[in-house]
Amino acid sequence: MGIADKARNKAEDLGGKAKEAAGNATGDKDLENEGKGDQIESAVKDAGEKVKDAASTIKDKLTGNNG
User: Fold this and answer.
1) Cα–Cα distance between 27 and 24 in angstroms, integer?
2) Residue 47 CB: number of other CB atoms within 10 A?
3) Is pLDDT at 2 greater than 90 in this prediction?
4) What is the DSSP letter of 64?
5) pLDDT in tens, 9-45
């Protein structure tokens, strides 16, 4: 996973936490749920990037390409 991807995912996660907290503090359930959704989306993207990294590592080991 590239550093830029990690940074984007982390920013999305933090933004989601902020939205969730703001929604909770103001009683805005829509904003709170939007924040939770952003956090879930970030986690899914992060998991996808980890799968890509693992596949790349396996491919490199099978082809003898160790970087």
Assistant:
1) 5
2) 11
3) no
4) T
5) 999 999 999 999 999 999 999 999 999 999 999 999 9
pTM above 0.85, yes or no: no
Opening angle at CA 44, ends 41 and 48, nearest 5 = 140
Please list, in sequence order, all residues whose beta carbon lies within 8 angstroms of the beta carbon of residue 13, skipping any fewer than 6 positions away. 38, 39, 42, 43
Determine which helix (DSSP H) or strand (DSSP E) holds 28, and give its type and residue range: none
Contact predicate 41/10, CB 8 Å:
no
Question: Could you tell me the pLDDT band of residue 5, with boundaries at 50, 70 and 90?
Answer: confident
Indicate if the alpha-carbon torsion angle 23, 26, 29, 31 is positive or negative: negative
Tell me the CA distances in angstroms from 60 to 3, 4, 6, 56, 65, one per residue in order: 20, 22, 22, 6, 5
Structure tokens at 40: 């879930």
